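Budget justification note: compute hours in this period were largely spent on complex prediction jobs such as the one shown. Inputs:
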Amino acid sequence: MAEKTYLQAISDGLRQEMRRDKRVFVIGEDVGVYGGAFKVTLGFQEEFGPWRVIDSPLSETAIVGGCTGAALMGLRPVAEMQFADFVSCAWDQLVTVSAKQRYRAGTPVPIVVRLPSGGGFSGGPFHSQNPESSFAHIPGLKCVCPATPEDAKGLIVSAIEDPNPVLFFEHKHLYRRIKADVPDERYTTPIGKARTHRTGDDVSVITWGAMVYTAEEAATRLEEEEDVSVEIVDLRTVMPWDKEAVLESARKTSKILVLHEDTRTGGFGAEIAATIAEEAFEDLDAPVKRIAAPDTPVPFSPPLEKAFIPQVDDVVAGLKELAEY
Amino acid sequence: MATHTAIDVVMPQMGVSVSEGTITKWLKQEGEPIGVDEALLEISTDKVDTEVPSPGEGIVQQILVQEGETVEVGTKLAVIAPDGAEPAAVADVPEPATAQAAAEATAASDAPASTPTSETVEQVRPAAQGASETTAEDASGESSDNGRTFVSPVVARIAAEHGVDPGALAGTGRGGRVTKRDILAFVESGAPAEAAVPAAPAQASTEIAAQAPPPAPEPPAPQAPAPRQAPPPLPAQPAPQPPPAAGELFEPMSAMRRGIAEHMRRSLDTSAHVTTVFEVDLTKVAQIRGRLKSEYAASYGVNLTYLAFIARATVEAIRNWPWLNGEIRGDKIVTKQFINLGIAVALEGGKGLIVPVVKNTEEKNLLGLARAIADVAERARTKRLTPDDVQGGTFTITNPGGWGAIMGTPIISQPQVAILDVEALVKRPVVITDENGGDTIAIRQIMNLCLSYDHRLVDGAYAAQFMKELKQNLEGWDEAAY
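Corresponding output:
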C-alpha cells in the first residue's frame, strides 16, 4: 500500500496488466517516446518496447479501428485518446464497428479506450468535455468514470479484462490533485457497482468523476453549517450503472440531487432522475433535482468556465433547497 | 328549492371499494349561482368518472379542494350558501381560502370562460372580510402557499400505511408542508392514528362502513347503529412492515384493493357466514336458452346468458323468502319491497372487482334482466359506471363458474345478508326416476348453486327452502311466466 496520485494509479494498473499479459498493448498519439500528453505511459516504451507501446498517426479512426481489428485477432488493446473530446473522430469505429460486432457476429471486442476528460483548467471547448452520456446511449459500449485512485486502478484492470469495448473516462482535473493509498498488488473493481462515498440521512447526491469531490465539499459545509446529513453515491460506472444502489439511497433519504459535470440536456443525470421517478416515486419527498453544466460549449475564460462547471456553492444551494423542501 | 343554510358538498362515495376521488374540473366558480341538481364539478376515481350535482340552490360560496387534488370520500369540497346569506359561516370552515386567493388560483388556471369577473370577486370578498381579523390573516397565509396542502408521494404512502391524516400534522417543510421526517416522527411517537384524523373524514369512513348510499334517505333517528355494527377501528399501532426479503417484490395497493380488503374483512367480522350448496338440473334451461339465444341476439341485440336465467329465478324465489333480501339495521330487521341485484364483475386480469347493481329487478322479465346485466357488466369493465350504479344492492350474485369452479363459499357484501354463487355448468350422469318409478341413468346439464347467508338473520331451514324454490324455478322453467 502506497500513496499514489489518480494518474499514478492508472499508470500502475496498466503497467501491471502489461507485465502480466503479453496480449495487452497501448496505442495512441505520443504515448510512446513522449510518454503520453499527461505522462500516463511514461517509461512504458523503455520497458515494453515500441511494438507494445505504439505511437500512432493523428487519427482516432485509425487508433480505434486498429484496436478493434487487433482485439478480433486475440489481443487486448488499450487506446489513448489524447483528449476525450477527440473521440468524436472515432465515433464510427466505436459505434458502428466495436459496439455492434459481438451482436452481429458473436466475436467479442475486448478493447479499452482511455479518455482524459473534464474541465476546470481553461482548456476550452475542445479539451474539456465529458462525453460519457453520448456513449452510454450506445448499446454494446461500457463507460466507467472513476473518482478515486483506488477505483481508477481497479477499474482499468477490470476494463482490460472485460470482453467488451470499455470507455475509460479519466478526469484530468483529478490526475495530480487527488492522492490516496492504493494497494500495490493486482485487484479489480467491478464494473457496474457504485460506491457510497459518504453516508447520510437527509439528502442524497448521485454523482461520479470529479463531481464527487465537489459534492463532498458541499456536504461537509452543509453538515457543519446547517446540520443536514448528506449521502454521496459515487456511481463509478455510468454504463452499466448501479440502479439498485441509487434506488436504495433514494428510498433512504427520499430527496435526491443528481450532479454531473456534463451538460444538462440529455446528460446521464436525466436517465437517473427518470428511473428514480419511475421506480421510487412513492419514496420521494421532494422533486428529483439536477445540477449540471448549462447547454453550451465549455468556455475558455476562467470566470465563465467557473460559471459553467457546477461549483461547491451551487451544490450547497441545491442541497439546501432540497433539505428545506 | 332554495337553501336557507349553507350546505357542504362532500366527495361522494362511488362504490364500496372506492375510498377517494380526484377533482377533474370545477364547472362553477366561487361566487356563481347554482341550481339544485345542476352539475357543480367533475370527479374521477379508479372506476367512475362523473359529474357531481349541487345538493341545493344558492351561490357557490367556497371551493375548498382544487382541480387535480385527490381527497377521501366524505371530504368537504365546497360550500353552497343561500343567495344573500350572512357570511358568518366562513369562520367555521377549518381551512378557508380567501376569495382573493381563490380568484387568483382561478385566474392562474387559465380558463377564461369561467374566470370570475372582478365584480364577482368583489361580491365575495366581503364574506372573507367578515371573518375575524386573525382568521383572515391565517387564511391568506395558508392559501398563499400550496405547501400546507401538498402531500409528497412518500408522505402519502406512509400516511396510507399507518392510517394517518397528514393534514392534521404540523409540517416543518416549505410553507408548512408535512415532510417524510415529520410524519415518521409522528408515527414513531406512537400517537394513536385516530387522534390525528379529523372528525369529518372519520364520520365519512363510518358511512362507508355502513354502506349507506349518501343520496338515500337516512333511517329514522332512533335506529342509531348498534355497537356491533360499528366498523372495527383503524389499527392504532400497525405492525412495522418488514422490508422485502430476497426474491420478494413490493407493489403498492390500489385504492380498489384496499377497499376490497377492508370490506371483506369487515363482512367476516360482521356476519355469521354459512354456505349451503344445491345441485340444480339446468337441462331444460339449456334447451330454452339454445332456442332463444339467436332470437334475443337478432331481435334485441342481447346476449342471453345462463346468469340471466339464474337471476330471474332468484328474483322469483326471493319474493317468497324476503329475509334473504333484507338487512339487520341496529336491532331491527329490514325487508325491502324492491330487489336490487348486485352482479359481481371481475376486472381484467382478476385484479379487482366491482359489484354494479341492477335496480328493481322485481319489475324485469328475462329479456329486461339479460339486457340490464349485460349493460352494467360492460360499463363496469370499461369504467363507465356512475355512483348510482354501485349503490343500493340488496342481494348479490357472483359467477365464478365461467372459469370452471364447482363450489365456493362467497363472502356477503355488507349490509346484505346473502350472496349466491353460480358455479360451472357441467354434463353429469344422473339417476332419473320416470313416472312409473323406474330409474335410468341420463346425461344432464348440472350446476351447483352455493348460497352464503348471514345466520344472524337467516336460519338453515329458511335458506334451504329458498334454495329449493330457486331449484324448482330453474328446473321447471315457466317460459310464459318469466
